[in-house]
């Protein structure tokens, strides 16, 4: 059964992943999107700069296995919410400065870009 997640409007409650029961997830997490911010009852608005926990579905590369056994996996990530739009979020997990040849400091970062339609849960942790 192919369920296509809905894109959030300015304010609505959305089921972020309709196929969670097929993945063995016990309950459906619901978040509210208000004016571009994620919000749930326990943690309030999630704004850019917040330290967040994200649980999401991730792709799996399989090799030399029965293809019928290959399914998306559930990943967890923690980091600073650096960017958000209607399609994805960007988490920064490490941020540092590196000297350039011209003597200036270049800002570098390591993180993740996560498609919103794969997010099962997202909440503020600090």
Shape: flat
Radius of gyration, taken over Cα atoms and rounded to an integer in Å = 17 Å
What is the arithmetic mean of pLDDT?
74
Distance between the termini: 38 Å
**How much β-strand is present in the residues?**
over 45%
Biggest β-sheet description: 5 strands, antiparallel
Helix-strand sequence:
EEEEEEEEE
Number of strands: 9
Number of domains: 1
Strand order of the largest sheet: 8-7-6-5-9
Tally of helical runs: 0
In short:
This protein has 126 residues and is mainly beta. It has strands spanning 11-15, 30-34, 37-40, 44-46, 51-58, 73-84, 88-99, 105-115, 119-124.
Keywords:
126 residues, mainly beta, 5-stranded antiparallel β-sheet, 4-stranded antiparallel β-sheet, 9 strands, 52% strand, flat
Could you please describe the fold and organization of this structure?
- The chain is mainly beta and 126 residues long.
- It has one domain.
- It has strands spanning 11-15, 30-34, 37-40, 44-46, 51-58, 73-84, 88-99, 105-115, 119-124.
- Strand 7 and strand 8 (105-115) form a beta hairpin.
- The chain is flat, with a radius of gyration of 17 Å.
- Mean pLDDT is 74; it is low at 4-37 and 39-43.
Please write out the topology:
Blueprint: E1 11-15, E2 30-34, E3 37-40, E4 44-46, E5 51-58, E6 73-84, E7 88-99, E8 105-115, E9 119-124
Antiparallel strand pairs: 1-2, 2-3, 3-4, 5-6, 5-9, 6-7, 7-8
